[in-house]
Design a protein that fits this description.
- This protein has one domain: Sandwich (Immunoglobulin-like), CATH 2.60.40.
- The mean pLDDT is 92.
- It has a four-stranded antiparallel beta sheet, with no helix packed on it. The chain has a three-stranded antiparallel beta sheet with strand order 1-2-5, with no helix packed on it.
- The radius of gyration is 13 Å and the shape is globular.
- By secondary structure, it is mainly beta.
- It starts with 5 loop residues before the first strand and ends with a strand.
- Helix content is 0%, strand content 65%.
Length: 89
């Protein structure tokens, strides 16, 4: 649907050094991609400049322990979109 942003995270569960994410934007913009653990602590913060349309990016996982996390994409003109991610190291 036009104007709707979509976020896919894979592989899930994540087992390696990085996690892949695909995100579709209606309009290009700078975004912030935080990874938050189950107690609400931000364990990673990654800025990105995404273009209108389909975008694919990697989220590095070195130093991230096993557990359940929330990956969020948020921008100035974008409601926060969050997906659950299981990391198994």
């Amino acid at each position: 649907m036009p104007g709707r942003e979509a976020l896919a995270v894979y592989p899930n569960p994540a087992t390696g050094f990085s996690l892949n994410a695909s995100f579709t934007l209606a309009a290009g913009q700078a975004v912030l991609i935080p990874l938050t653990n189950a107690v609400g602590q931000e364990v990673l913060r990654q800025p990105a400049q995404l273009q209108a349309g389909a975008n694919t990016f990697q989220v590095p996982l070195p130093g991230i322990g096993s557990g359940l996390y929330l990956l969020t994409v948020r921008g100035a003109n974008l409601p926060a979109i969050t997906r659950r991610v299981l990391v198994q190291q």
